[in-house]
Amino acid sequence: MDDVPRDTVRFSVLGPVRAWRGGESLNTGSPQQRALLAALLLRDGRTATASELIDAIWGEEPPSQALAAIRTYASRLRKALDPGVLVSESGGYAIRAGADTLDLAVAQELAADAEKSRSNGDRCQARTLINKALGLWDGEPLASVPGPYAETQRARLDEWRLQLTETRLDLDLEVGCHAEAISELTALTAAHPLRERLRELLMLALYRSGRQAEALAVYADTRRLLADELGVDPRPELSALQQRILEADADLARPVEPAPSAAPTLMRPAQLPATVPDFTGRASFVRELSDRLAAAESSVMAVSALAGIGGVGKTTLAVHVAHAARPHFPDGQLYVDLQGAGSRAAEPETVLGAFLRALGTADTSIPDTLDERAALYRSTLDGRRILVLLDNARDASQIRPLLPGTTGCAALVTSRARMVDLAGAHLIDLDVMSPDEALQLFTKIVGAERVASEREAALDVVGACGFLPLAIRIAAARLAARRTWTVSVLAAKLADERRRLDELQAGDLAVKATFELGYGQLEPAQARAFRLLGLADGPDISLAAAAAVLDKPLQDTEDLLESLVDTSLLESAAPGRYRYHDLVRLYARACAERDEQPPQEREMALSRLLDFYLATAARVYALERPGDRTVDHLEHTQYAGLEFTDRSQALDWLYAEADCLLACVQQSLGKQTLRRAVDLLIAAKDLAESGANSRRYETAAIALRDAAATAGDARAEGRARTTLTQVHSTAGRFEEADDEAHHAMALGLAAQDPWTSGNAPNERGILAIYRNQHAEGEAYLQTAIDAFRADDNRPGEASALCNLSRIHLALSRTASAVELAEQGIEIYDALGLALRLANGRYALGLALTQAGRLTEALEQVTQALGIFHENRQPLWEGVTHFRLAEVHLAARRYTLAAAHAEQAIALRGIGGEWRRGTVLTVLGRALSALGQPDRARACWSEALAIYEQLGSAEADEVRGLLHPVAAA
Predict the structure, then answer these.
(1) Fewer CB within 10 Å of terminal CB in the chain, N or C?
(2) How far apart, in whole angstroms, are the C-alpha atoms of residue 933 and residue 793?
């Protein structure tokens, strides 16, 4: 309907019966007049006689003036619509309008196109088209239209909509979106309990999501229901599916094709870096590796590991061979730099997440743990022919989870370490080039004419480079860029033993000598930038952060960095971001230690970087939490940070800089920087609350706590322990969290730190809620409220009030719980705290639920969910879906309760195994109420296993739930 000219009259029947022209809604009159319009629209342009229309609107008992009424309705509609749209002919009426002007006709065309796409194997396109068709519905079809004809058509359209939904859900499973489909299928099976196809799809979705027990429980519930209601057994297809699940059929676990990602082009990854046009030599290695990769189709898995010193050309050779082997791997090529030579090697689970996304797995379907991700990765690769290039590996343990496990796939690994403990790998030790190969590479870069006239000098150059490819390439690039130099000039520079002899040794020192050549040609300002930027630990550095390190204006910094990119000593990672090759970074740091004068300049550069991150993160915090006194208690900075125009821009910066920011924290553990580092972690707390980067955040907090304890800095240690309290609490590690909070409270008191004095007892009060220590929790939270009020920290006070509300709830003081939550919301509202307001509405929703005011509770929690989603807080989104499930459960809306519980699980943001147990418990209650006791039992059994492993008191509650079901 989007293609219809705006001035054409359009109609809808998949909801209220309406007509509109452009953006103007047309008056379609009384319900009976709309019934006439609907009857004509649904006849596909055919004429309806007056008697047919009377039967359609009034049935067997029409009024005495029915014919006159029909004529009146038709006359009014004719005036409202365009001329020629409603016509009179052969004693009746008809609508003459294009098929694309009616939403139903458009939906039918989309459904037909979807079926064609599916027949042609394009399931993703079919799924998209059916979603478009379903999107045309706007509630109940023919809403509020009276008459027997409308009633019949309404039932027909409802059934068709359900059939389309089944088809789309079938496609969801075919393309691997099983986790996302469970919530909708749970709701649909509750609404249509006897519809076996929906039950079949739910079983398959659960099985593919690793929830085998629940899948089998769905079958048991279905068999019982069919026997009780209809006296029949499940259809053969459903029974066959149950048997395949019992047998753990491997084919059943695989979707027909991988799940579509947000960008369909990622379904066939092509991630190999560009190969160098002047690749030289290594003929025997190329042949050996190529033969191994060509044989991958018939072997379990081909793994070849290249080892050698840095700069020997491992990556260049691997990329060259990988490109040549692409025809053998038509399903794609994956690549990752594992950063094994540096201090921050890539974590296998992070790499697996990136690989799964590149292979088309939706974010919500990616598991949390390393083992689960590795298993899903191998399953996704099964049946496909994909080459995986694992570059710059640290050791065998880093790459084992990243190896494919099936026939047809292959892996190429490069590393400084020889992978002798990598079972089944074909090992290749890559040495320096032969003199002839080295000279060929030098000649290709410099030019044959220049080398031919000075062959001996050229041999001297490559010899001085130790025949190391990276060294030769940098030396040749320098010469190629300087037309006035001869080869002899370059050879003479390398002949200076003061710069070369001690460094051209075995191992990485050979690379250092090569870098010395490029470094020696830098202008003083370039050399200073090269030295100082290498000090930062992050994987890369932004232009703004680099300007802070160098203490220069942004434009001057950009000019310097781009000039370093031209010399190949720095890489442009992305617009406005720069990075070092890991070996170059080490060399830059060595230069800084050797050449930077005065030596304190190194510490000052890193101090400016810390200032930049702290000042900028504090602005993000202030934008997110107006009026929060936390920013007033942070250490003062000498270097200004960035300014932001809105909260979204600020959050974009924080998440983009997460790795670099947390690396800076861990690099700032000295006495002079410790307090600022702790405060930076506090200002960047969104990184922990969002669930993103939580592991790195926790690691940094632990390092700060230990450093502060060693330094005897009570204030820094108290703040670090308070941040750790929140991290442990979010992960469901309540014992560890309480221990940190206990020490933090004592340290805050000793240091007379207003921030810790308020936040530590507040966090401990939250823990008391989870641990059912309500009297202690009330005391902690009252302490927090008093501390926040003494500090005039209104948002902190509101937070503690909302938490105290939950304590009162647990103590059955419902009225005061509601009142406390409302006080918190009033403060948040007055300060314009959008994100924190969501926490307040969340707390009020809990209180209203217990008070039995379920409609108000639903409104509060739903508003909280919207705010959390808008602020990119998946952890709190998941928890809020769980609370919505509780509200609907209390209101006996069991289908909605189950759907929200499933969404909490699908988001994977509920925070630790303890919270997963609470969601499964509520999901089981909803399913039990929906007449699905076997599936409920499966949920409770999983929850019980979690609680027993954690030693949680909730285990008793779940045992109580299981026994009645077991006895039934």
Answers:
(1) C
(2) 49
What gap in Å lies between CA 846 and CA 869, rounded to an integer? Answer: 19
Give the H/E segment covering residue 900: helix 894-907
Q: How far apart are CA 917 and CA 959, in angstroms?
A: 13
> Locate tokens 């190329």: which residue?
286
Q: How far apart are CA 727 and CA 715, in angstroms?
A: 19
Cβ-based burial of 772 (10 A; exposed 0-12, middle 13-18, buried ≥19): exposed
Q: Residue 21 belongs to what H/E stretch?
A: strand 18-21
* The two three-digit tokens of residue 624, written as one number: 């997110």
What are the structure tokens assigned to 690, written together? 């969002």
Alpha-carbon distances of 297 from 255, 302, 383, rounded to whole Å = 22, 9, 11
Helix-, strand-, coil-residue percentages of the chain, each rounded to 5: 65, 5, 30
How many residues are listed for the chain in this entry? 968
Which tokens hold the place of 865? 């969910």
For residue 923 the two structure tokens come to: 């999901």
6-40 pLDDT tens trace: 568 889 999 999 998 877 888 888 999 999 999 99
Please name the amino acid found at residue 699.
Answer: T
* pTM of the model as a whole: 0.59
User: At 886, is the pLDDT very low, low, confident or very high (cuts 50, 70, 90)?
Assistant: confident
Tokens matching residue 21 = 């022209």
Between CA 69 and CA 66 the distance in angstroms is 5
CB atoms closer than 10 angstroms to residue 376: 20
Contacting residues for 52 by C-beta, under 8 A, at least 6 apart: 39, 92
Q: Cis check for the bond before 598: say yes or no (omega within 30 of 0).
A: yes
CA gap 947, 945 in Å, rounded: 6
Dist CA 18 CA 34 (whole Å): 8
Q: Quick one: three-class SS letters along 282-334?
A: CHHHHHHHHHHHHHHHHCCCEEEEEECCCCCCHHHHHHHHHHHCHHHCCCCEE
Sheet holding 92-95, edge to edge: 48-49, 92-95, 86-89
Taking only the tens place, the pLDDT of each residue in 250-264 is: 778 776 655 444 433
Asked if 690 and 879 touch (Cβ cutoff 8 Å), the reply is no
pLDDT at position 152: 93
H or E, element range at 97: none
State the average pLDDT over residues 722-737: 89
Q: How far apart (Å, rounded) are the C-alpha atoms in residues 521 and 515?
A: 10
- Bridge partners of 393, per DSSP, are 415
What are the distances in angstroms from CA 953 to CA 273, 309, 910? Answer: 53, 55, 19
Tally of CB atoms within 10 A around 112: 12
Task: Supply the pLDDT for residue 266.
Answer: 39
Q: What is the mean pLDDT of the chain?
A: 86
Report the DSSP pairing between strands 302-307 and 426-429. parallel
- Please give the torsion angle defined by the CA atoms of residues 631, 634, 636 and 637, in that order, rounded to the nearest 10 degrees: -80
8 Å CB contact between 186 and 902:
yes
> Smallest Cα–Cα separation from 518: which of 499, 536, 501?
499
637, 666 in Cβ contact below 8 A?
no
> In this structure, is the dihedral angle defined by the CA atoms of residues 922, 925, 929 and 935, taken in order, positive or negative?
positive
SS3 state of residue 578: strand
CA atoms of 215 and 246, how far apart (whole Å): 10
In this prediction, residue 514 carries a pLDDT of 54
How high is the pLDDT of residue 129?
93
State pLDDT tens for residues 303-321: 788 876 667 788 889 999 9
Q: How many Å apart are CA 325 and CA 317, to the nearest integer?
A: 12
Q: Collapsing DSSP states into helix, strand and coil, what is residue 48?
A: strand
Pick from 114, 121, 95, 108: nearest CA to 40: 95
